[in-house]
Amino acid sequence: MAGIKDVAAAAGVSVATVSRVLNGHPSVSAEARARVNRAVETLGYRPNAVARSLRTDQTHTLGLVISDVLNPYFTELARSVEEEARALGYSVIIGNADERPELQDHHVRNLLDRRIDGLLVSPTDGGSPLMLDAARAGTPMVFVDRWIPGVEVPVVRADGRGAVRDLVAHLYRLGHRRLAIIAGPAATTTGSERVEAFRAALAEHGLPLPDAYTGQGDFQAESGRRVTEGFLDLAEPPEVVFAADNLMALGALDAVRARGLRVPDDIALAAFDDIPWFVHTDPPVTAIAQPTGELGRAAVRALVDRIEGRTPRSVTLPARLVVRRSCGAPPTPSPVQRSTS
Amino acid sequence: MAGIKDVAAAAGVSVATVSRVLNGHPSVSAEARARVNRAVETLGYRPNAVARSLRTDQTHTLGLVISDVLNPYFTELARSVEEEARALGYSVIIGNADERPELQDHHVRNLLDRRIDGLLVSPTDGGSPLMLDAARAGTPMVFVDRWIPGVEVPVVRADGRGAVRDLVAHLYRLGHRRLAIIAGPAATTTGSERVEAFRAALAEHGLPLPDAYTGQGDFQAESGRRVTEGFLDLAEPPEVVFAADNLMALGALDAVRARGLRVPDDIALAAFDDIPWFVHTDPPVTAIAQPTGELGRAAVRALVDRIEGRTPRSVTLPARLVVRRSCGAPPTPSPVQRSTS
DNA sequence: GGCAGGGATGTAATCGATTCCACGAGTCCA
DNA sequence: TGGACTCGTGGAATCGATTACATCCCTGCC
């Protein structure tokens, strides 16, 4: 493969001049510039990004460590992150932590070794020493969706409290009084926040959230199934199950169906995180939709701000309720926003 | 950040010795090794992968360029690719081509500039000059799922012909005679192959595939919707619509539902590419399932074989039919394999 | 006419590792 | 005893770029 020296030789100039042409440095004669460009063209020369990175200490690469690539929410997040990064001249390396802290650490270490310019993380747990050290050592870093309290790192996330309140109001209006939740891992902020928001919203209607109605899940479908079975085994099962993410909702749907019960007639179902498939399930699932694409873009902008010396800002965007049929109401016009497709 | 020189100084040895310890070179005294390891530990030293890559001309990175990250099939493929690559000591950079040739080229160029060790591609089109040049220039490369004929590159893919024949037999047995297909782009191998397999299977039953029943899609949901609307507008609409991928099936489902029609009573539906969500749609969708995870792993193994000097083999694995309710049959035991979950 | 200033260019140091080669010391065997 | 060999080690070249610095030449102004 042709290197910068070959180009210099072919153009009859020094490597310094070639480099200047390549980087748009003003101080090059039009004549030399033309000769270099011609040589680049004929040799099919492409600069070696590895060498360039070593010298400039910039890789123009961002790391993104997410909890579960198979979760459509994170897939969409990853997609929007890549798009925005590309628009700003960066590439993205994605690490899938699969909700496993040690895998998360593996990816963080690997990305750091590769000297990425900045790190976007949706932490699986409360934060490993490795990640905290990196943040403290000054690695540009931004949390998306989930975050770790007490660390000086900007956070880009959605606030679901308003939407959860809307959801509970909607359920209350439909006559439901026994509401249960499948929570996410308490170690994640999204795991605990959603339970708290739910509990607070229930309290507004004078409803309790008994322990028996608080199931512990792990954001994966299987745990949703397991917890739901537990609910159904209760002497007095809940009338509604609210899953703190989409995969657990899927597991819940399975569990209900496996008993020969029907949604919403026998039990209602709602989920946090809307995804395109919820329109097509039987029945369509009422869900809380995050502005996922906007979150990804905002996170990249914050990270690049940090990298390029500007001051990054934390961003919180509102989530919104999307009413479908899984809680019993026909999706007729109502004060609450309806599904649009 | 500490460099190898710092470690050498702290351990009282030369950088050469540090490097030898780091790379497990045998010719180092136990004593020196211990001192180096201690210094590495206390300094928290991590080798700079960029510098290492420059020197060794290996990045231990694979590029994966896929057509659409939002398609669950490719998401799962990407996941299995990353897993297998990690197991073999490689990282993966994913490029999302979004079915756009120019974006595909952008990613290929970017990955080549970064000097990835090998490239895994599921080509969006018939192959750009850039990609063909790279293959010819000796860049280790493997095609997954889709491929480009006439290029000396191993291919890892699923053969759907048997499963399509099973599907058509299944439909025939249910009494369906007017079968239509939503095809993928003719420029992709999967686009044209699936139509051919379908046509051949129909022929075995003496059934034609009229032009009016061959709709042109682009593997995205919207095109499935559009083509299906066309089918429904025909004087004699088909009894079955077979979508050549999952997203177009989703679009078809939408179109049918928008007309107030029901699947499978008014029209039957089947899809190529099974995904977890098809179990939960209304009705559950009969689909042809590829061994996606195995494809991803086989592709990585082939690519790494090529990179490490062994001879890579092309791999073709069979797809299989998964019968659910969208074609009208109750999923009772039958010679054809049933859905398992 | 001489000198300051600025533009175009080349030489060489540099980034952080790996690795070839040389060298000294120790071992073995003739 | 000495040559051949091995082992542990360090010095220095190298990978392919960027860039500080020096140099040269031209222009403009006093």
From TrEMBL, chains A, B:
Q: Name one Pfam family in it.
A: Peripla_BP_3
PANTHER family xref list: HTH-TYPE TRANSCRIPTIONAL REPRESSOR PURR-RELATED, LACI-RELATED TRANSCRIPTIONAL REPRESSOR
Q: Does the keyword Ligase apply?
A: no
The HTH lacI-type domain extends over 2-56
Q: GO MF annotations for this entry?
A: DNA binding
Alphabetically list the UniProt keywords: DNA-binding, Repressor, Transcription, Transcription regulation
Does Transcription regulation show up as a keyword for this record? Answer: yes
Write down the species: Streptomyces bangladeshensis
Q: Which domain of life is it from?
A: Bacteria
From the Swiss-Prot or TrEMBL record, give the protein name: LacI family DNA-binding transcriptional regulator
Q: Which InterPro entries did the record assign?
A: HTH_LacI, LacI/GalR-like_sensor, Lambda_DNA-bd_dom_sf, Peripla_BP_I
